[in-house]
Amino acid sequence: MSNDQLHRYLFEDVSVRGELVKLDDTYQRILENQDFPAPVNALLGEMLAATSLLTATLKFNGSITVQLQGDGPVSLAVINGDHHQQLRGTARVKGDIKDDATLPEMMGKGQLIITIEPVEGERYQGIVGLESDSLQACLEDYFARSEQLMTRLWLRTGEHEGKPHAAGMMLQVLPDGKGDEGDFEHLAQLTDTIKNEELFSLPAKDVLHRLYHQEKVTLYPAQEVVFKCSCSRERSASAIAAIERSEVDKMVAEMGTIHLHCDYCGTDYAFDSVDVAAIFEQNADSSSQMQ
Fold this sequence. Notes:
Low-confidence stretches: none
Main location: cytoplasm
Helix content: 25-40%
Protein name: 33 kDa chaperonin
GO molecular function: protein folding chaperone; unfolded protein binding
Family: Belongs to the HSP33 family.
Distance between the termini: 49 Å
Number of helices: 10
Oligomer: single chain
GO biological process, one term: protein refolding
Mean pLDDT: 92
Order of helices and strands: EEHHEEEHEEHEEHHHEEEHHEEH
Radius of gyration: 22 Å
Shape: elongated
């Protein structure tokens, strides 16, 4: 099992659950495929940790997309994750970004959009305005409005042993739990003392002991987190098939080869005139079989 793991834990004496995620390889895979300014890299790391934590709360098979949209120099930042803890992410940068840019400076006026898509069932989407200075606070605002459960998050990114790392923690009151707000705030205050170096370097059990050594905590088996992109040559071919044949032929005549680039993993799919002819021939055969 890799170092990238999600850990769930439960407090025995109070109705609060917790999650801790450490993201080394997954975060590095996202960054190596793209060239963004440091503040955007940090934002993607925080979003990556948050998406992993949110995906772990799913009570069904499905996926979560955490997306930021705005009118600032970063028009889009998005992370996709599923119940298998398979994650990917990217961003679109259209302007200059200062080395110390904050979330409002990067996104401008914007929205946090969380989309939940069960394998079976209806799609759900929640939207809140980016009214806080941090992603962490915006997500807590989302939980307060949608879940109506007391929730706190800690999202961290930084360098450890010369490589970028991301990590996160979450505390949440159980839906039907007993206990008062004071119990939750006490645990949140303990979690506030966590340091980046501890999150990046210590095993989960040591982090929990460091924070909650006077509490009774049950730590459950870890779940591996991985980078995985769902792009494929077949999906790229389907995208070409959705365009008018005359338009595709015109592009091939002008460029010789059509290139479709995946922003998530950096893979480039090339289609020449022979490939294009095969795509539309197959598409025509499929249409005739359906009739």
